[in-house]
Amino acid sequence: QVQLVESGGALVQAGGSLRLSCAASGRTFSNYAVGWFRQAPGKERECVAAMSRSGSSKYYADSVKGRFTISRDNAKNMVYLQMNSLKPEDTAVYYCAVDRGATMRIQSQSYDYWGQGTQVTVSS
Question: pLDDT: is 28 or 2 the higher one?
């Protein structure tokens, strides 16, 4: 069992930056791939970034490529999402998730554990 708690969401002006953090419980966290998803009102949940368990493979959605960076610290059981040059269209609830599968995947149904989400609002 893995429990995830996100933090760092806030109201920020367009062009600003935020760093989301996700604290994970469980001794086997380092064995799992991780991902950051977001869901805006009326829209489907989408994967914005994902990372393999080793950190050697990363995925970014085209809409955030070059602006967002996913990272993890297995020693601290932490996952981060650095978000720069934020745009109003980045406004959403952001979730971190853990995938017990062997490969990095971007489909939400592949992920086994989810945090409660943190709100990011970008004003124009």
Answer: 2
d(CA 104, CA 54): 10
**How far is residue 65's CA from residue 9's CA, in Å, rounded to a whole number?**
19
**CA atoms 72, 76, 15, 117: torsion sign:** positive
**DSSP state letters, 47-109:** EEEEE-TTSS-EEE-TTTTTTEEEEEETTTTEEEEEE-S--GGG-EEEEEEEE-SSS----GG
How confident is residue 55, by pLDDT bands cut at 50, 70 and 90? confident
Please list the residues that pair with 23 across neighbouring strands: 5, 78
27 pLDDT above the threshold of 70 = no
Nearest by Cα to 17 from 65, 66, 97, 86: 86
Helix (H) or strand (E) holding 12: strand 11-13
| Residues above pLDDT 70, as percent of the chain | 98
Indicate if the pLDDT at residue 101 is higher than 90: no
